[in-house]
Amino acid sequence: MKFKVTTNNFLDIEFFQTLQDRFAEEFGIASIITDVNGVPLTKPSNFTDFLYKSCKRL
């Protein structure tokens, strides 16, 4: 049996979401964490309407 290794298998996504939210708020920037293929692992933080409309996969 093959086991597919993904970032969700070994990363605590909730921890990174909290870290990202605080970072984005503190520095006043937008932030999102993606995997190597550009697939979002976290929810967008501090995104403007323009960014939401510009990003197709969110």
From TrEMBL:
Keywords: Kinase, Transferase. The keyword Transferase applies. It comes from the Bacteria. GO terms for molecular function: kinase activity. The keyword Kinase applies. Residues 10-50 form the PocR domain. This is Histidine kinase domain protein. The lineage of its organism: Bacteria, Fusobacteriati, Fusobacteriota, Fusobacteriia, Fusobacteriales.
